[in-house]
Amino acid sequence: MKFYIGIWVGMLAIVGVEAAITYLHMSAGTLLFFLICLASVEASLGVLYLMHVKFERPILLWTIAPATLFVVGFLDYIWPDAYRALHMNVGLFK
Description:
Elements: H1 2-21, H2 28-50, H3 58-88
Helix pairs in contact: 1-2
């Protein structure tokens, strides 16, 4: 149980760092970079330890990770189309 409490405290610390750097008045691009990096570390900790994926067979990680990256990359092509459809009054957005 001490291990999982340590992971939880570490994740809380990351949230604290995220909140603290928002008050540093950085440029938007730099702030976004740091927040995305910290959020990625926090999400990785949550998935690996709190969802027990670290203790699964490696083949699970090697099948889920590329599929997730593919879906996120594919969504990058859909979002601009949804924005265009919203402003052209086509489809469901009429």
